[in-house]
Amino acid sequence: MIEQEKETIRFMTMEDIDTVMEVERDAFSTPWDPTIFLNELTSNQFAQYLVYEVEGEIIGYCGLWVVMDEAQVTNIAIHSKNRGQGHGERLLQYVISFLRQMGVSKLSLEVRVSNTVAQNLYRKMGFIEGGIRKNYYADNLEDALVMWVNLDDK
Question: Where are the transmembrane segments (predicted)?
Fold first, then answer.
């Protein structure tokens, strides 16, 4: 857990799902159903979900699947009213530090090819392009750019 001036990153609880859904609906054109988060928290042994709070309000979250020494970001989002303030970068920095402590050596994610803002953040954090998943997003069949970072290199 990280706590700075009015900022906290902590593990998500079931009580957080409703508020996380507000971020989810704001950030994604095809948001997950709340039952997916419930299943991730209660049934998926590989899932790790973190929430990012500012002054006690959840403004973002990150979901991860951790298997052995590899992890994948399932989703990461900051509410639109809180973007452009460095929150996404701080959340991702925390996630990377957290995963290193768990012994994870490689982190991957998919991002819409049109989401250059997120891609630029990932590149800043050391991610490189690994390929394209054609027609990955169900809402508009947009391709996903696969990106990864070797956590042993930093």
Answer: none
